[in-house]
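Record 1 of the preview.
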Amino acid sequence: MLVIENIGQTLARNVRISVSPPLQTTLGAERAATLNRVVGRPIATLPPTRRIPFVMDVGHQLFSSELPKVYEFRVESDGPFGRVDPLIYTVDLPRRTRPVRSQCAGHRARGARRDVREERGVFDSASGRGGVA
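->
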């Protein structure tokens, strides 16, 4: 899943996202073109905690393919006080995978929440404030 989310505390306006290299998927060229088109479309407003999810690929198919696994996302937006400095996120998919340490669903859910909190901390500290991820 690819998720665009406003992790800040204020409304983000005029959100523009660019990805390098263009997103690719094992689900076919048409799906990749659609994915790039919708991710590249400007978002007029994105309230705090609002999430926009997109199906990017099937994990095991993507990781066993020769497709790129590292992408750079550049996010530009306007906040309550005008234009926000561009935020650049490098997403390294192989680094985001972790072995499951337990078969307990509760343990996995706690780990996933911890991962999200860690990611949010990285995003917040990179910009010195909250932002759109």
